[in-house]
Amino acid sequence: MSWRAGALLSLMVAVGGVVAVVMRRSEAESAAAYVDPVLVLIASAAIAPMAISLLRQGLRELMEAAPPAELRATIEAAAAAAASEYDLPDPIVRATRLGRRLYVEVDFLVQPGVWRVEDEDRVRRFVVDRLESSDYQLWATVELSTDPTLIED
């Protein structure tokens, strides 16, 4: 979107320059002094909708911080695949997207004494490998816990 704003401003400066040159060579030379202020007003009015749109999008993102449905489905599929691959229960998945950053938390409630840290690392790598191909900077936490109070929603 910013390239459009830049292109529009460049076009307006070029048009304004041509108008000013033409006015200086004609009988409207005294009005040529107003070309720059009028150009600034027109450019501001033209760019304002784009700026407002970007502001709205940013505020929506901060308020919701939820990844788009397609990305959410990818995250849930990666977590479900890990559950299937490692014979784990259904995962609890939480995800937040802020700008280009994607924060993912996948929790599994497991039986005591069955899982080691190395096993948890394999599950984490499995999930992360499936999500790293996205266009986002990934911050992933995959946790195996025997205490349901630590992973509750």
UniProtKB/TrEMBL annotation:
Transmembrane spans: 38-55
Per the record, the domain of life is: Bacteria
Q: Any keyword Transmembrane?
A: yes
Whether Transmembrane helix counts among this entry's keywords is yes
Recite the UniProt keywords alphabetically. Membrane, Transmembrane, Transmembrane helix
Name of the protein in its database record: Cation transporter
